[in-house]
Design goal:
single chain, about 450 residues, mainly beta, six-stranded mixed beta sheet, 32 strands, binds CU-O-CU linkage, binds copper (II) ion
C-alpha cells in the first residue's frame, strides 16, 4: 500500500489523491485532511421527446479545457462535460441523436457495441465525415440491453484521447432493480504523449480518472445494492480490476448467464463490465493490478483507483439475483469462415491484419444470414483488443478451451500467440469495421472491413 501512494502522488501531484489517514497514521503529525472527491454518474442527456418509446437527445462536440489532477488538458467535450452525457434508453426504444460538430476538425460518432444500420455507424468507409459546423441526426433502435459507449471514429486516437466519449445504457425492464446505478467511465490521460504507436504506456504511471476524477470515493448507504456499469475508454491502458467479493454480473453485451466471482476482471480499451456492490460492514478499495499489452500482468503493487465507504456499516444489504439468458456455450462447429491474423509492431512499422494495413485492405464478405466462425490469431508481440462493428459474437474458445459460461462480446482481448474462435450471426448488412481497439494500433493500420451482403 505505502509503496503505491507516493507513486500516485508524484504521478499526478494532486492534493485530492492524498491518502486518508488510517489507524497506523495516528502517531504521525496531524495534517489537514482533503477529502477525496465524491464520484457520481455522468449527467444524463435530456430526453427531448415526450413519447415513452423515443429517446431524442442533442449532442454537441466542442472544445473544452479540463483539469485532470494537476494536468490542464486543452481538449474536447460532448455537451461541455467529460465524460459526455450518458444516453439512457430501454429495449425497443428509438434513439435519435441530433449531433453537431463544433470542433475544428472533421469528426463522426460511432455507437460502440450496438447493432445500428450501416449508414448510422459513423465510419468514413461508409459515409462522409462531418466537417466543422456540420450536423447530422443519428438514429437507431435499442435492441440490446447492456452498457455501451459512443466515441468518434475519425482521427480517433486524438479525438478520444482529448475527451470525446460517453456512456450508453440500455435497460431491460426484466432485469432486477437495484437501489442505485453508478456509471463509471475510466480513462487514462495524455497517453498519446507518453506512448508512440509501438510502445505500450507504463501501467505504473498512467493517470487514471473515473468520470474525470483522480482517486475519488463512493459512499454506500446502509443496505444499498448498486449496479455498477464500467467502461474502459482509454486509448491504450488496461484495467485489471479487483476488490474483495468482486461480483461481475455483465460483460460487453449485457448480463452474464450467471454472476462471476472470479476475483478480478480484465478490461481492455473498449471493454465494458457490470458489477454488483452490496453495502456491507467494511469499506473497500477498487484496485487495478499492473497490466500491459506487451506481456500481460506486470511486476509491481496494484494501484488504488477508487475508495468505497459505508455510511451505515451496521445495515448490510442482500444481493439481487442477476441472470442473463440460460443458453449454454455453443458447440464449436470446427470449420472456419474467416481468419484474421494480427501482426506487426516496431519491426514491421505498420500494424497488420492478414498482412494488410488500412486503408489498403481486401474486403472480405459473408452472405447475410451466415452463422459464421471467425478465428483470430495473434502473431505479434503485444495483445490486441479485437473489435467488430454492427454485430456481437459469442466466444467459442480461447486456445482451444471453451469459456466457463456463454460469453457474448463485441471486443475481446487476444493475448500474445493466442487463438480465439468466435461465433457470429452475420445478419446486419453493410461494410463493418474490424479493428484493434488500442487506438494507436488502429491508427497504425490494424483495421479492415467485413462486408455482410
Ligand atoms: Cu469503439 Cu471501431 O470502435
Ligand atoms: Cu492492437
Amino acid at each position: 500500500m505505502w509503496r503505491v501512494l507516493p507513486l500516485l502522488l508524484t504521478a499526478c501531484q494532486n492534493p485530492t489523491a492524498e491518502p486518508r489517514p488510517t489507524e497506523e497514521d495516528t502517531d504521525e503529525p496531524e495534517r489537514t485532511e482533503v477529502p477525496a472527491p465524491l464520484l457520481t454518474s455522468p449527467a444524463e442527456a435530456e430526453d427531448l421527446d415526450a413519447a415513452d418509446d423515443v429517446v431524442h437527445v442533442s449532442l454537441v462536440a466542442d472544445r473544452a479545457t479540463y483539469s485532470v489532477g494537476d494536468l490542464t488538458v486543452e481538449g474536447y467535450a460532448y455537451n461541455g462535460q467529460n465524460p459526455g452525457p450518458t444516453i439512457r434508453a430501454k429495449l425497443g426504444d428509438t434513439v435519435m441523436v441530433d449531433f453537431q460538430n463544433m470542433i475544428d476538425t472533421p469528426t463522426t460518432v460511432h455507437w460502440h457495441g450496438l447493432r445500428v444500420s450501416n449508414d448510422m455507424d459513423g465510419v468514413e468507409w461508409v459515409s462522409e465525415p462531418l466537417l466543422p459546423g456540420a450536423s447530422f441526426t443519428y438514429s437507431f433502435t435499442a435492441t440490446q440491453a447492456g452498457t455501451y459507449w459512443y466515441h468518434p471514429h475519425l482521427d480517433v486516437e486524438h479525438q478520444v484521447d482529448l475527451g470525446l466519449y460517453g456512456a450508453i445504457v440500455i435497460e431491460d425492464p426484466a432485469d432486477p432493480v437495484p437501489d442505485r446505478e453508478l456509471v463509471v467511465v475510466w480513462d487514462a490521460w495524455a497517453e498519446a504523449e507518453t506512448a508512440d504507436e509501438h510502445t505500450a504506456p507504463d501501467p505504473k504511471t498512467l493517470l487514471w480518472t473515473a468520470n474525470g476524477l483522480v482517486s475519488p470515493r463512493v459512499e454506500l448507504a446502509g443496505g444499498e445494492v448498486v449496479r455498477v456499469r464500467v467502461i474502459n475508454a482509454s486509448n491504450a491502458g488496461y484495467l485489471d480490476l479487483s476488490w474483495p467479493g468482486l461480483r461481475q454480473i455483465g460483460s460487453d453485451q449485457g448480463l452474464l448467464p450467471a454472476p462471476s466471482e472470479a476475483g478480478s476482471t480484465l478490461l481492455a480499451p473498449g471493454d465494458r463490465a457490470d458489477f454488483e456492490w452490496v453495502a456491507g460492514s467494511e469499506d473497500f478499495e477498487v484496485e487495478t493490478a499492473l497490466y500491459t499489452p506487451s506481456g500481460g500482468s506486470a511486476i509491481g503493487e496494484p494501484r488504488t483507483l477508487l475508495a468505497v465507504e459505508m455510511t451505515a456499516p451496521e445495515d448490510a444489504g442482500a444481493p439481487l439475483s442477476w441472470s442473463g439468458t440460460g443458453d449454454p456455450v455453443s458447440e464449436d462447429p470446427t470449420w472456419t469462415d474467416l481468419m484474421y491474423v494480427l501482426q506487426g509492431g516496431a519491426a514491421a512499422e505498420d500494424w497488420l491484419i492478414n498482412g494488410e494495413s488500412y486503408p489498403d485492405v481486401t474486403v472480405r464478405s459473408l452472405p447475410t444470414g451466415t452463422e459464421a466462425v471467425i478465428e483470430v490469431r495473434n502473431l505479434s508481440a503485444t495483445e490486441h483488443p479485437f473489435h467488430l462493428h454492427g454485430h456481437s459474437f459469442e466466444v467459442l474458445s480461447i486456445d482451444g478451451v471453451a469459456p466457463a459460461q456463454r460469453t457474448v462480446e463485441d471486443t475481446i482481448n487476444v493475448k500474445i500467440r493466442q487463438t480465439v474462435r468466435l461465433r457470429l450471426l452475420a445478419d446486419n448488412p453493410g461494410d463493418w469495421m474490424v479493428h484493434c481497439h488500442l487506438l494507436g494500433h488502429e491508427a497504425g493500420g490494424m483495421m479492415t472491413v467485413l462486408r455482410v451482403e
